[in-house]
Amino acid sequence: MSDALRQAAGQVLASPQVWVVVVCSAAYGIFAGAIPGLTATMAVALFVPLAYWLDPIPALAAVVTMEACAIFAGDIPNALLRIPGTPASAAYADDAYAFTRRGHPERPLGVCLLFSAVGGLFGALVLIVVGRQLAKVALWFSVAEYFWLYLLGLSCAVIVARGSLLRATSALLLGLLLSTVGLSAVHTQARFTFGQPELYQGISFIPAMIGLFGISEVLRNMLALGERPPSGKAAPTAAKPGQGRIRRWAWQPLAVVLAPAGSLLRRRIPHVLRSGAIGSLVGMLPGAGADIGAWVSLAASKRFSKRPDEYGKGSLEGIGDASAANSAALAATWIPALVFGIPGDSVTAIVIGVLLMKNIKPGPEIFEKQAVLVYSIYLVFILANLVLIPIGLVAVKVGGFVVRIPKKVLLPVILLFCVVGAYAINGSYFDVWVVLGMGILGFVLERWSVPLGPVVLGIILGGPLEERFIQTLTGSDGSLAAFVSRPLAAGLGIACLALWASTLALALAPRGTTQP
Amino acid sequence: MTSSRNRAALGTRTLPALGALGVVAWLTVGLCGCGPRGEYPSGPVVLVCPWSAGGGTDRVARQVAAQLENELGVPVNVVNATGGAGVTGHTRGALARPDGYTFAIMTAELNMLHWRGLTNITYRDYEPLMLINRDDAALFVRADAPWATLGELKAAVAANPRALKASGTAQGGIWHVALAGWLVADRLGASDVIWVSINGAAPSLQELMAGGVDMVCCSLPEAQALLDAGKIRALGLMAAARLPSFPDVPTFKEQGADWALGTWRGLGIPAGVSAARKARLTEAVRRVVTSKEYLEFMARAGFHPAAEPPDEFSRTLADLDQQFGAILTSPSFKSVQAARFGPMVFPAVLASLLAACVAALLATRGPKRRHAEPATRQGVARFAMVVAWVALYVVLAERAGFLLVAGTLLFVMLWRLRLRWYVALLIAAILVPAVYQVFAVYLRAPLPWGAWWAA
After folding, report:
1. What is the mean pLDDT of chain B?
2. Do residues A62 and A19 lie in contact, with contact meaning Cβ atoms separated by under 8 Å?
């Protein structure tokens, strides 16, 4: 093992080609991730024809780096404009944006950057040490276990949402209902499509997310424009005007962005470890991935927090824990892909294609036959997360200019980007209508104090939840016992019920102790 | 400065603004060297792929697109129009403007979806260009299974109907049809083997290994890893002849079952494209799919390349459509399709829960804390402007092109938000071409050029 590790280190760290590829892909990943509507999947898919010309290790290094950087970059529009770049960042959209509204966008971004990098490093280390053993966990999961896992993720979205439990539950159910539009995956039958072929694809979550969060915020601002002076005027910073250029460009990002995040990190090491562990475990299950990891970790973070009231209104603790979890999950999704050839998400589906292109067959023997390659992938994960910090800092610095633009210029430009971004995903005008419709829906829901996060997660997980529900029932010939007949399913079911019971107990208990 | 702007009467602002509109139009059109188009193709070509990024069809599509760029000398952008089990993409490809700038990669589902009542689109809505890949169905069992040949398996099914389980794809998918078709061809019932609906060949094969199903029907390349490892055996290939890359796998025909079926991928343009353009595209595609680079790619990916010219491909499509129609409309297959838990079970559960929640909310409506700002008339007007903006964009973009529509709309909105007209003009004139450059050129999003400007 150590021999292979040493050889891998030589191939990764000593190769100038790998370094160039990693730095370029980091910049590209940040760029693609920061534009709403562009996803890591698209960034990687566009790269595939280029992979043909690269050796296997640089090709995989590029994919790993793009993925790691794109998932952080999704936090940039999330914090600055409240447009989540990935479903995982939707978990803390309101928290991060709250700081921007107070004029401190660099705080959540610094936390996202540092905790993402640390989470990613944690994920890579976990996989180096126990990745092979962990892979077997995925085999324990049958459809019934997945059903409970999805339900657990959805429950977490309700728990972390701010405001009343009843409103959050309604939001979740609304999201789940929206997910049933289109062709039902398990029945292959059309539902709520009214004969329109465009509706067969259903409501895709990226336009829905851009609409619910981004457009609704544009609409709210448009309604209130000119009523009060813009508050985003140059955030108070450590560097005083008149100081030298070097100081402003090099020192200030470090001091203002990273230093507070660093001190938060020092205080929260056990919490970050817990989040990383949740992310790694959940990410490794095919079809669960970073999204559920972020929500579950955020809910756990809220439960253990001394200030649970801050969650949803601007909690740096929550932002940090959730971004650590989603970055840790990223590395874990590679495990089922490498060991069983079963992709954990859409990016690893492309990775399998790249592997086959390079004549590498995923399978249980990949650790024996391709040990150097496997270790190289993990080393690249470490490298990518280290490169992420300086490049991410530049991106945060550049992004900082966005909040200084006057609202009457910014809002139309955001609108343009939302429309183009939604269209770019599938080249579909229907998605543009979805953005608009969801924008109006989001605006209305916020007026009624209904949280938006659960709607998004409902849209994402509605399809898989139904599929597992129907498959479990079909397999057992209609008997509900199938949901608890396997020990692991029963355990997850009990965890889920306990979560709800404790949440209800907390909600119904007399208030008074929750005051900070 | 602000006060003077506010005092300015509408009349004095309209004229320069209208002038500016003209300038925006001129700039955006002029900047990009638009004008009457030259020889076909003179702009980016879109390749519609009905399946998601990273899948097998997407990989083939991207390979073809990359090589076609060299042949045609213009960008060829792959657009993943996913969803609806292939309905979305096949419909989009067939209904695209027949100007030769949109074509599609079609898959076997084209001949299946309309028989199942999911779409009206058939192969007749396309003009076939080239069949580029064929993968025949094969039947796999575990290495320790008691059946050594297809005949033995058939005898086991006949002796004990509905005892064995199979998978390979979702209910009603291509491999399900392949298996059911074989059963019917061999005078067994289509539902004598229970089909477990598992989405995809890889998870189905895993289920086979774990003992959840007794056989898997999918293509040979999909199962190659487990086949090479000696974990599974191939009982037969549903093709006319053995494959050179798998010489040991006998065909169904050799074993007395007259049955062949497989999946295919092909390129097609919407019906109505001019003959000259079709010929140009066909020739480019032909050169791509016979190139060494393409054949190498297909060999590495494990797909079996094909290169069937338009006429032959048309006949193949018609034959396949007949074959699928016979299977999919047969009574025995229809009975297999009926699901026990219908598509409305889940939505009904959700809707009743939501109704209960909303009722509880209305009943316990506590202290109302609306944080909403009071809306002014201008505010409502601005709100309506956003809605109109998006609607106008959707309606006009395809006709007048992204540059003109987005440029004009952006300018108008900035101007209505009381920016000085030349500032608004400057922002629109710089930003919109920049967005086009980033999204359409670098990131390959198919932002429309505009039908009005097309030759």
Report:
1. 83
2. no
Judged by a CB distance cut-off of 8 A, whether residue B118 touches chain A is yes
Name the 3-class secondary structure at B447: coil
C-alpha span between A212 and A445 (Å, rounded): 9
- In chain A, which residues have their Cβ closer than 8 Å to the Cβ of B431? 413, 416
Q: How far apart are CA A11 and CA A4, in angstroms?
A: 10
Distance of CA B250 to CAs B238, B239, B243, B255, Å? 9, 9, 9, 8
Contact: A447, B372; criterion CB under 8 Å: yes
Q: Examine the pLDDT at A240 and tell me if it is beyond 60.
A: no
Chain B positions touching A342 (Cβ under 8 A) are 202-203, 206
Mutate to test the interface with B, among A423, A459, A500 (most CBs of B within 10 A): A423
Q: What tens digit of pLDDT does each residue of A47-64 get?
A: 877 777 788 889 999 999
What are the structural domains, with CATH classification, of chain B? 13-36+378-453 (no CATH), 45-134+263-337 (3.40.190.150), 135-261 (3.40.190.10)
Show the CA angle centred on residue A450, arms to residues A150 and A415, nearest 5°: 95
Residues of A in contact with B199 (CB under 8 A): 185, 467
Interface mutation vs chain B, best among A41, A200, A432, most B CBs within 10 Å: A200
Q: Which of B343, B382, B410 sits opposite A416 (nearest CB)?
A: B410
Closest-CA distance, A357 to chain B, in angstroms, reads 6
Residue-wise pLDDT tens digits, B377-421: 888 999 999 999 999 999 999 888 899 999 999 999 999 998 899
Mutate to test the interface with A, among B60, B175, B378, B382 (most CBs of A within 10 A): B382
Which structure tokens are listed for B266?
A: 């092909």
Task: List, as ranges, residues 78-107 from B with C-beta within 8 Å of A.
Answer: 78-85, 87-88, 91-92
Burial of B230 (0-12, 13-18, 19+ CB in 10 A): exposed
Our CA-based measurement puts residue B256 at a distance from the nearest CA of chain A, in whole angstroms, of 33
Residue from the list A139, A419, A471 with its beta carbon closest to the beta carbon of B393: A419
Query: What separation in angstroms does the CA of A389 have from each of A211, A275, B36, B311?
Result: 30, 20, 49, 57
ipTM of the prediction: 0.81
Which of A170, A223, A435 is facing B361, going by the closest CB pair? A170
**DSSP code, position B441:** I
* Mean local confidence (pLDDT), A305-319: 85
pLDDT beyond 60 at B150: yes
In sequence order, the 6+-apart residues with CB closer than 8 A to the CB of A350 are A41, A44, A45, A48, A63, B53, B54
Tell me: the pLDDT tens digits for A98-125? 998 888 888 899 999 999 999 999 998 8
